[in-house]
Amino acid sequence: MRRRVLDVLSGTARTSLELSRSFEQVVGLEPDRDLLQLGQQLRQVGHCVYSFSEEGGDAAVPLTAKLDHQFECERVEFWPDDPCQLPRGFSQFGCVLVADTLTQLSAPADFLAAVHQYVVTDGCLVIASNYDWGSSHLPKSAWLAVGEDESTFYALQTLLEPHFECVAAHERLCRLLPLTLRTYTLSLPEAAEAQCRCGGANMTESSRCSAAPAEPAPCKRPRLSRQESPADDEPRRQLHARALLGCLCPLPAGRCLALTALLLPPERAQRLLEALVATVLESERPLEVCHALNALQWLIEQHEDEPDVGGGERSRPRPPPAGCVVVSVAPDAEALTEIKCSITALLENRWVPATQRFCRLLTRPAHETEVLAFLRLWATIISVKNNLSIVETKSLYGRLEGLLGSLGADASPHVWRAILDLYAEVLCYGSTIALQDCVAEEPACLAHALLRQARAGRLLELVPYERGARAFAGGGGGGDAAGDRSLLQKTVLLLLKALAVTVKETRCESSSEASSARSAGGSGSEEQDMAIIERTLRDVVRRLDAWIKARLPFHPETPMSEWAVLLLCDQDDYLVEAMVCLLDLCNGLAGRVRLQPDFERAVDPHRSFVQFLETVLRDHDLLLDFLVSNETCFLLYLLRYLKYVRKHWTQFTAVCSGKLEEVMTVLIRLRLSLERLVARDLFPYNVGPILRLLEKCEDLYEHHPPAG
């Protein structure tokens, strides 16, 4: 009988089925025939269909509940009895569980007075409840706590002390309850455990009381002080984390877990983070893994000045239901930094097995959701937006190259897109690397690996361009008639970043070596090294050019510097970053190695700029919008490009040729617009350097016209 458990008001059997993993027999009591039928169907068939309110009105949507294969369904049975009116001689159990159903009983006091009859000696009674009598359908006379100075816990002690010894109390749990598909309420029930002395209880705090009942205190508030046992707390916190992961719906569960970490004291938040990381590595349930990964990602993304407690929606939230307590969470910078550092430290210690696990799942469709969640978390940690430096996350850059080896032609387009986004965060050229004097080792190594794969043809041929189109058929997800255009855009931008990073790294290293050679009185082999690098870059550009033209209808003679602008013109941030990469690529090679004519045309920044002006219809107001906006790195691009034009004026006029007057008209109008805004003190930052460069280019145009 110690292996038997009684689930009081089992409802649709969610808790009863969970208990089947730990008990030999589970009996669920549920007098509501409709709920009982759903539980029976779930146990026997493995799934059931039910309707749920979408917006709180009459409209409802059909949902399907599916059973986890790890449940032991044959151990579960359901009885249609009222727990408050059980017959004399009813069976006894090793454990009786009242899981947040105390206020739903028809006669709570009668049940508690008789429950010892159903528990064996030294058995346990576990009660978890939020004591929300106001939301129950009971008359006030049936409540356990009626007076202003009374508490439900005191009433529980009074009713149970004749037969039960209190073992633990005041253990606060966390439960997210869906009211509609878009509205949830967070409940914080207290758990209590008691041991039966004469035939049986368990209430949750971990020091055992004496065998003789204590004398009641004069006041009617709970008398037990909280005493924790670390040994008992460890399995309990894992149980709480698993309960949250297993019972919540997919969309809000990650945020609920993250909010729980923010609400808890630091030491308990740390335990929750440990449980989440353990779930990522050890759980065999995909839904649990996704919830844990989403919670970790959400915590990493948070900023102290923009708390996102509403799920990311900036619209005004709906008023909460009656009786719901609203808690605003706005953690300070120190608390958020501590949580982020804890997450990265926990992941660093187990990063190798984590990456190995998900690399094995890359090409398995059944685990695609888990893989995507892991890749999003990885990209979030590396992202510069979250203020985690390469030094802090150095070990998390490991095994980036291993993803390429694990990918195959059968990998999902969604997985490919997530991996390309991850690599793009590592090679964050426009926002970070382009501004640095030297390139860090980790981005440089990834850039080299990408170029090796592209030069050998393995990377480009594996990109599922055609399969991506079928995946997005009928939608507006960026697919064209032949394939998934967004995959092409991400691949092209990534390789342009890899090219620019490699040239920048080589330039930094050669500058250092040249300085050392001069100080030693010798000469290095810089020209030979640059010739080898130029040949490698030329091969990659040639392969990329052929790969794109085999999939998109560009003219065979169109150089990469022009078709890249046409390909990326619908993504402003991609487009501007690509032009920065081409500019730095050409600028880094200029004067250091003789470029082949086809390669020089492919990376010519002047051709890109002219094509860019054609794309924006030579509208100087659009250039002004780019300068004002912080969504792209256009300020960096225009500043560097105007310097490049001033230095290579003859080349600029030759490329513009018959379009020189139109190009200069756009630049002159841009200067005039900027001057008017500056005169009225309406421009958001100091644009003086741009104005001076525009004036210099205008002076060159007036006094150094193109030949002929």
Textual characterization of the structure:
This protein has helices at 14-19, 33-45, 108-114, 152-160, 230-247, 250-263, 266-282, 286-301, 333-349, 351-360, 368-382, 400-406, 413-426, 441-456, 458-462, 465-471, 485-520, 526-549, 560-568, 572-589, 597-602, 605-615, 620-628, 634-647, 649-656, 660-679, 688-703, and strands at 4-8, 25-29, 47-53, 60-66, 76-79, 93-99, 119-129, 164-172, 175-178, 184-187, 190-196. It folds into 4 domains: 4-209, 3-Layer(aba) Sandwich (Rossmann fold), CATH 3.40.50.150; 229-312 and 330-392; 399-514 and 525-606, no CATH class; 616-708, no CATH class. With 708 residues, the chain is α/β, with parallel strands linked by helices. Strand 6 (93-99), helix 3 (108-114) and strand 7 form a beta-alpha-beta unit. The protein is built from 27 helices and 11 strands. It starts with a strand and ends in a 5-residue tail after the last helix. Residues 200-251, 306-315, 469-479 and 517-523 have low confidence and may be disordered.
Tags for this model:
708 residues, alpha/beta, Rossmann fold, 4 domains, 7-stranded mixed β-sheet, two-stranded antiparallel ribbon, 11 strands, 51% helix
